Input
Amino acid sequence: MRRRLATSMVGGRIAAVDLRRPDLRRPFPRRFVERLTGQMVTALERRAKYLLATLSSEETLLMHLGMSGSFRVIRDQADGRKRRNPPSDPHDHVVFHMATGRAVVFNDPRRFGIMELVPAGRLPRHPVLSKLGPEPLSADFDAAVLALACHRKKTSLKAALMDQRVVAGLGNIYASEALHVAGLSPRRLASSLATISGAPRESAHRLVSAIKRVLEDAIARLAAPGHRGAPFLVYDRAGQRCSRSECDGVIRRRVQAGRSTFFCSVCQH
DNA sequence: ACACGGACCTGAAGGC
DNA sequence: TGCCTTCAGGTCCGTG
Output
């Protein structure tokens, strides 16, 4: 999503903002439209599940898609005229009209999304960012770090992977997917990744590799033009056969910490 | 300090 | 057809 939006926004100017309701989960920041209008977008970055658009005003637009949020880009019409009324539905809550003529539309039926404006200097200490664990695809995230973060936890492995302080950016789908690839049961204790002293066991190495592989694959697929809905290995596949070769198990669903977990009880231990 | 359950919203799908 | 319940990719807050 970051890559796709960057193409339309980075280096461009926000010519107008169409704000169609006062709030998502929380009210939009005060003077939201005025603070964005006319700004250049100098960078678009991601931290965990947050998108961070750096503005020429030294403020950063902090965004989260929640459960149901999405962005779409509307290109200007072939004859060069801007669309007066971009195609919209009742859940198109914000439209960024770029000076190029493109429009970036934020749609979010459940309105669990977030849009905030944060002064650049206060970004590192922002409450939602300051407690986040390592980026899963960075070199900082390795078996030693994961084992240390987990060795005193009193929760399941699945819950630990969804804890954004342990590793930042895995959600319910990819937590299940990574555990499947690693061959680890979601019900194991998180602390079983570490020895008594907190050193990583072999399972921690396997899990870190699985997390990185699962996320890299997903990003590669979603970045491909005309991509299809991700073919998950276990997520939302209860009752179907395990896809691992040589495994004749069936995928099961169980609720952990209030969320659905999908796994194969034959090849995940 | 930690872990859990419920709350926040709307819409889709399935049972009756 | 319509009404009910359950479930959905994420945080956040109160409670124990």
In short: Chain A has two domains: 2-130, 143-232. Chain A has seven helices and ten strands.
